[in-house]
Predict the structure.
Amino acid sequence: MPDEKISLSDQIRDKLDAGALPSVLPEMMWTGYGQGNPCDGCGQPIHPAQIEHHSPLDSGGVFRVHIACFGLWVAELRRSRKADRHTRNSPTLRDVIRRKLDDGTLPLERPEHKIYAGYGRGATCDACGDPILPAQVEYELNYPDQDRTLRLHLGCAGLWEAMRLRRGLDPAF
Ligand SMILES: [Zn+2]
Ligand SMILES: [Zn+2]
């Protein structure tokens, strides 16, 4: 069933190819709530109830995206870097997250409580399995009823959100 959510990753890949999205991760991304400005990923406004990630651009402008758009963008950056390294056959981060959602390693439901953001302390990311370094943003999702705490990189959390939204679930962020 074609809908906007299915084409969002294509839209982001096209923008990246066309140079309309930065091809390197900014050194710093600030997190806050939207102010109704359009997202550089999907073009839709980032509403005040939604998380916005933004960073200043060298051109003097501001780059801003929804967390799900951020996750898809990071996944595309990783994918293009991997292609350069001739490791095309290894599963992409999206494949890994999809499999983890299917087998229950990652939850489909959103946490009932507030999601915490901070800097990494070397814990393993529940999505990609890499450590979350002190220079990286870490999201902590608590599921007290299941006695579970998930720790995710910012990009992995965004991708998890994007894949949940694609399945028609309510936004977690
Ligand atoms: Zn967006
Ligand atoms: Zn990760």
Observations:
- The mean pLDDT is 88.
- Residues 14 and 155 are 19 Å apart (CA to CA).
- The chain is about 30% helix and 20% strand.
- The longest strand covers residues 137-143.
